[in-house]
Amino acid sequence: MERQLLAPRETTVTRELIQRAEVLIEALPYIRRFRGKIFVIKYGGHAMQSEELRSSFAQDLVLLDLVGINPVIVHGGGPQINELIGKLGLKPRFVRGMRVTDEATMEAVEMVLQRINKEIVTLITRHGGRAVGLSGKDGGLITSRKMRMLVRDESGRRSPVDIGLVGEVDEVNPEVIRTLDAANFIPVIAPIGIGRDGLTYNINADVAAGEIASALRAEKLILLSDVDGVKDREGKLIPALDSSEARRLIGRGVIAEGMIPKVECCIEALAKGVAKTHILDGRVRHAVLLEIFTRSGIGTEVVERRARVTDLARGGKRGR
Fold it and tell me: Which of 38, 202, 231, 307 is most buried, by CB atoms within 10 Å?
């Protein structure tokens, strides 16, 4: 008489271990799909100010690197810059979200970004990765030009405003980054550019990340922020948008204030060849892994065009 084989009884501990294994299995198709691809990640905001979040971010980068994905980091440093400027007795000024940057402020900006850059490199190294810190001035990585800003007055007339040493990206030399990637180093980039006039320019980190992602034809541009992602009028997270829908939401005022430049950065990067873009909350531990290696993600995915994006925005699963 044949004995009937019974499945072993699952204990609480066994079920927990199985759930962990299922998480790995869920990530497997994404690891396979993205192996050898470039992810450009803008790192900033509150994600940089907590030791726990800094460590989880570094762990995410090391894991991406170990499974064959090539992360490129572009970092900001706004709160730290404000702190130093205050200590120096300088008053921070902003025009349409851009820091007015005179020579003294530029020195402070460069000093803070260099310090942050080395701290990120050290953190990645401590968690088992290999990273190299650089700024846009190194190897001609970012050639910039002075930003020309126009501001509307009360009558609605647009007039130029001088915001000092704030730059736009004129050109990106991707070979510097490709050389580091080929040697299995994670590039960590401070958003400072050098102009053809020899001047140093402060560049918005989101803008720098978008232009670098475009030059590299990156698979993904990921912007870490201090909010969940793009939200609708009721404050509910929109999991996925295409460029045309995003423009409509900006026009209707649904996407507003500080989210506008982030979404516009995504739209421009997509138009220049980046495959997908993401806006997510850097205050969540392991936010990058949760966005990339799970079916639902945790933020907003913005793509050039997608069929039935409205259905997806209502809670459907996204195409990672």
Answer: 202
Nearest alpha carbon to residue 225 among 7, 41, 46, 34: 46
Q: What CATH number does domain 36-218 carry, 3.40.50.300, 1.10.260.40, 3.40.1160.10, 3.40.640.10?
A: 3.40.1160.10
Query: How high is the mean pLDDT of the chain?
Result: 88
Give the model's pLDDT for residue 158: 83
3-state secondary structure 156-210: CCEEEECCECEEEEEEECCHHHHHHHHCCCEEEEECEEEECCCCEEECCHHHHHH
Longest dimension (CA), the chain: 95
| CA separation for the pair 48, 119 (Å, rounded) | 10
> Using CA atoms, how far apart are residues 85 and 73, in angstroms rounded to an integer?
25
How many CB atoms are located within 10 Å of the residue 189 CB?
29
What is the predicted pLDDT for the residue at 193? 96
> CA 292 to CA 302: how far, in whole Å?
13
Phi, psi angles (nearest 5°) of residue 133: -95, 140
Terminal C-alpha separation, the chain: 51
Beta bridge partners of 193: 201
Please give the model's pTM, rounded to 2 decimal places.
0.87
d(CA 11, CA 1): 30
For the segment 166-201, what is each residue's pLDDT rounded down to a tens digit? 999 999 999 999 999 999 999 999 999 999 999 999
pLDDT of res. 319: 57
